[in-house]
Amino acid sequence: MAKFSGKIFNVFLCLILTLGIWMRSTTGEPVLAASVEVDRVHVLNRLSFGPSPGDLQHVKAVGIDDYIQEQLSPSRDSPELKRQLRQYPTLSLTPMQLERRYGFRRPGKGKLSPQERKQRRRRSRIPFREASEARLVRAISSPNQLEEVMVNFWFNHFNVSAKKGRTRLWVGAYEQEAIRPYVFGSFRDLLGATAKHPAMLFYLDNWQNTAPNSPGARGRFKGLNENYARELLELHTMGVKGGYSQTDVVSAAKVLTGWGLPRGRQRLQVKQAFVFDARRHDNSRKTFLGQPIQGQGIAEGEALLDILATHPATAQHISYKLAQYFVADTPPPALVDRLAQRFLATDGNIRAVLETLFESPEFREPQYYGQKFKTPYEYLISMARATGRPTVKPRLVVGALKQFSMPLYECQTPNGYANTESAWLNPDTTIRRISLATAFARGYGRQKTPVPPGQLEQTLGDRFSSQTQSVIDSSPRNLRAALMLGSPEMMYR
Q1: What is the number of domains present in the chain?
Q2: Whole-angstrom Cα distance, residue 326 to residue 467?
Q3: Continuous segment of H or E residues that includes residue 73
Q4: What range does the domain containing 434 cover?
Q5: Which residue of 114, 221, 270, 404 has the smallest Cβ count within 10 Å?
């Protein structure tokens, strides 16, 4: 009992000390102390989910510029990471394979018995669990950190939610097929891959989008559905201030009629999850953003995506979001404009736009260092990385994310999770984070081996203000790791 009480006392003391750091951090002192390591810490905080042991030393050895180029051209997964990912066999399955093997309703079969329903329901959870754990394994362990950051960025940009029906089966395949291959490639290719993926088609209802008077208009497929067309313009490409009208939304919806999923016995026969149903397509002539689109079946949709991918408003919208993520909640307009110019000049080459961003003086401007408040996802991953890659079981992180109102793959709105301070910083979540930091410091998720404070300080580098460092140095040694992990400097990137 005395031992248990001592632990409670230490946690309570840590909360008191860490909250004291937070209160004093509002005095105006820069979050990052001036030192030769500041630039390296900044680059690691922005191009990765935070340093893991040895990362800071690696950047020092190769130099910041070479490190950035390493991250922009990721290497293959390490043998150890491949070994970890092999325990998630559903990652290699196509959407149709997932539905046939794990779908709650078996295509072509009759009613299920109560026992079969129970077994099927339990089995249907496997793909989502494996996708969630695999995402976290990669985010924590992969040396290709910028790739993982961009997977998170683009998935959030083209968000689908596992809370909606069959999408739950497909979120892992969506990430594997429609997001990961394109994170540094062509925006047009990324846009097309997401538009045709069953997860997106189902989530935003375009699989039901049908010309009202077409031969295939019957049952639930009997009318125009504008959901995907609206989000395609508002969120995925041009942005809410992009200059399009409701008439353009309707035209886009008509262009995309017939873009859907296999139905009935098709689900047992086809390999490809995307199906174009010409019998449900609107073959009339359309005008979109002042440009005529002739009735050409599926080619109309490709023409629509071409227009959107090369539109100046799209370049501006994507550039703003990238600058907001990597530089500041309110990014410098001049930087956004330069990124948009680079986007247009390279036909939406994402790697080229990122190179321009990382080479910009704004990205290296000290006033922006340590000023991006981490989302719960970023904070938990950064603690797992800082305290050692084997420290945390992915399932524990999945549970913690739910407690912080950021369940992985379950943002229900198509605009995804916000990445700005105003969305996540409040007293309640701050106390929750500090409490979790204490748990991590004690060995969260492994053999309850405390994290050595000296090792953690070496991993995190010179990032603490003099006030924070003073509290850490004057505190009992067994509380120092928790104070570092729960500090303001750790919660910002």
Answers
A1: 2
A2: 27
A3: none
A4: 2-62+373-386+425-491
A5: 114
